Fold:
Amino acid sequence: MEYFVQQLLNGLTLGSIYGLVAIGYTMVYGIIGMINFAHGDIFMLGGFAALIVFLILTSFFAGIPVALALLVMLVVAMLVTSLWNWTIERVAYRPLRGSFRLAPLITAIGMSIVLSNFIQVTQGPRNKPVPPLVNDVYHFGSVTVSLKQILIVLVTTILLTAFWYIVNKTPLGRAQRATEQDRKMAALLGVDVDRTISITFIMGAALAAVAGTMYLMYYGVASFNDGFIPGVKAFTAAVLGGIGSLPGAVLGGLLIGLIESLWSAYFSIAYKDVATFAILAFVLIFKPTGILGRPEVEKV
Amino acid sequence: MTPGNQTMTTETILKIEHLSMRFGGLMAINDLSFDVKRGDITALIGPNGAGKTTVFNCITGFYKPTMGMITMTQKGGKQYLLERLTDFEITKQAKVARTFQNIRLFSGLTVLENLLVAQHNKLMKASGYTVLGLLGIGGYKAEAEAAIEKARVWLEKADLIDRADDPAGDLPYGAQRRLEIARAMCTDPEVLCLDEPAAGLNPRESLALNTLLKSIRDENGTSLLLIEHDMSVVMEISDHVVVLEYGQKISDGTPDHVKNDPRVIAAYLGVEDDEVEEVIHEELDGSMR
Amino acid sequence: MANTQSPAPDIAPGLMAKAIKEGLFAGVLALGMFLLFVGIETYQDIDNRLVWRTRWELLAVFVLVAAIGRFLMVGFITPHFAARKLAKGKAGQADSAEEESFFKRNFSKIAILALLFYPPIVVYLYGVQGSLKFVDNFGIQILIYVMLAWGLNVVVGLAGLLDLGYVAFYAVGAYSYALLSDHFGLSFWVLLPMAGILAAFWGIILGFPVLRLRGDYLAIVTLAFGEIIRLVLMNWSEVTGGTAGISGVAKASIFGIYSFDVGAPNNFARAFDLPMSSAYYKIFLFYVILALCLLTAYVTIRLRRMPIGRAWEALREDEIACRSLGIDTVKTKLTAFAIGAMFGGFAGSFFAARQGFVSPESFVFLESAVILAIVVLGGMGSLTGIAVAAVLMVGGTELLREMEFLKHVFGPDFTPELYRMLLFGLAMVVVMLFKPRGFVGSREPTAFLKERKAVSGSFTKEGHG
Structure:
């Protein structure tokens, strides 16, 4: 039982990270109907930004409080990845909006290749280990909870609440939902569609940066190709939950995290990703729009 | 006596019995029954939202009806229960073809290719399900030429022969409508269901459409079932009219009969329910007198 | 983006101010983007601790390039092109009616002829050993991608089904050959068709449950299947050799008459009293893959003119209309999937015979992405366009390996290979931005009554999935 609870906790932590990245996928898909393949690499970029900030901070201010360091890392990573995602959208996606559907998908895959190789070239191909930031662990019976895990779940919850508020209660969120429903009509009604889409990319990038920072904190290592597997898993999470649906993305993220940790714990670590993908395939085959997705009806 | 009236007495080709279709809480069609006679042009009319397209979608298998039976009787006497077939089998086996309200052409294929795709099943068989055709064995070549010949005939009829090698998406609207009809006819249907064929046509095109539809009925012996809003088309060409309102049949008969049916008039003019009663009473009184 | 300003040939008064503003903005943006990643380098010191140092000069270069580039773009290049476009529009479309040149009309014949004579010419120019690089890295490497892209073209370009896991079938072909030749000693020529059939079979197995999915859902499930196959190959060590893969895969022979194994009595070089060299094998393989490519092209061209091929294209245009015409779309999709997979399987078994070694490393998602990119960049459905895209993208990046002179420019530490994928990705983006429909955007009709007129890309649809 304790073992199970332990795995549940691990899954929850991992799932929070996936969920944060998945929101970026689902928002972009919802608003412009495009799989933003480069989003996983934006997440990786966020992790790298946090890593570099951490190195600078610790070499200048050796005794800096951990909380402050984390905060600075988060803020800088969010800023930098937002800049990147904003620029990428402007340069690589916007000119193709409304054109041939596969074109933005190909540029997104191209951007993904560019980003991971850019980091490989500028920062080197080797894994970058960082000393652990947060070491505290608490014991409840035989269940171990690390402060890292608590932080991750806590930050995720706070961000999601803020995020939910923005999307549901602010004019910006209303503009986003309107653009999602019908871009032309929204534009006619005075919504600045370009700006709304830009902000969507920025929001997605900021969440991915947070996820990247926490991924770095959790695993203590960053690598240029960290974007792909977590990216695909987060996308899987978004699709599993029902792409376009924000609660779906979080739910999907948590599910993927749980599946992964429970499968590793009880079956085999080697096949944990196979399990994730197989479950995705099954869910989609039997419920093609995901768990919380709206059914797509084609009018004849 | 018009030929239409003569055929009124002939056999039923498509029999719709107690058809109902429910979407969630909405009853789009409620216990609808009517017959389509062989060799007739049957029109299905009614105000917007009456459920006409839903009836079409049930007949052609794009929706599974909640209840009811749709029986198709072919020339040879072979019968099919359409509600049990999937959409493509209805065209392939039962020989019921259709067109769409919002035209669905293969816009990137040429006009000719559109008509060849419609002859897919026949050509598949002739090409030995691709295998023999790929090896150059068998009669695929002859059959392919015959298919082009057939397409040519329909292009002439639909007055599209000059545009045969242009992409379908490049045609003007009226020509696209005619092409869609020609394409459906290339599947050799016994019943052709047309969803608002005259929508968006100018008077000249509308006239050409009437000629085309009549020639389909008279020369090919294909029975037509059409949804139409344009009353001039309906009254001009149809032999039999069925009127729907709120998913129920309110009138059924010859164009003249329907035209004078007070319930139809009420439905189209939007009279209050009690006024309909009044109109009906007056009518009854009148006829009794 | 920025072509809203007046395209007057004499510089509009506000234009310079605008260009300077935009240039400065781009510079600031670049500073923000690159400050951490370019301005600071992280590396491990002798104690394996991660430390950092600054690279301000490099950062300055990045920022300046961005600022000046944007300045020139806004101030000169865009107005220049806008003006030219305007002039062209005024002059009418006189140049479009121009007669196609001899070269353009007979492009495929010339290309095939050139390919047939490619190895002898290279051998003549660079000697037997010297030809190796050209035949293998440029010839075979490119042709494998041509074949893969033509195979995927059936699925994506013709049937309009977005398949992001195509590399799975490539893997099935490669492992089928490696395993079956290893365990049963069957020859390449027996296993080549078998690998194709096995891959097609897998195409049907994987295709059957997923083909009723639409659009992006299909894409993601095919991606998932591709990854599942790779992960199984990686982890099922007893059979597949795990991450290490299978080495010592048997070479192909000239139909069993001549062998390329060094020890064999009927060794090709020995039989003809030639000096021993691996180049003969590569030249032979070049002709094998060329033949496979031509077979793929021939079958694709034939299939397009058959009912099944037309049904594929019709499916890409409108699935519902297809069903209304009595076409069984599930079967139609499955055949597209199976035939695409079969070509992937052929290419895979060829790949295994060429490398002599297979491992899951070769079948990552990136490969699927590269193949898909070639199909889309070439122009979906167009064999010529796809071949050109493969030559440019694969050949171009291979060329980077050869650019020794760059070392003199950027210093001896410079390894052009590192930039291979970076440039590949950039090229993908740039080509799409300028030619969203690929190099060849138009489509050849499969039948005609009077004259064959190419269908402009603006009419063709890209399918729903």
User: Anything to note?
Assistant: Chain B has two domains: 1-95+188-255, 110-182. The domain at 1-95+188-255 of chain B is CATH 3.40.50.300 (Rossmann fold). Strands of chain B lie at 12-23, 26-37, 41-45, 67-73, 79-81, 96-98, 191-195, 223-227, 240-245, 248-253. The two ends of chain B are 29 Å apart (CA to CA).
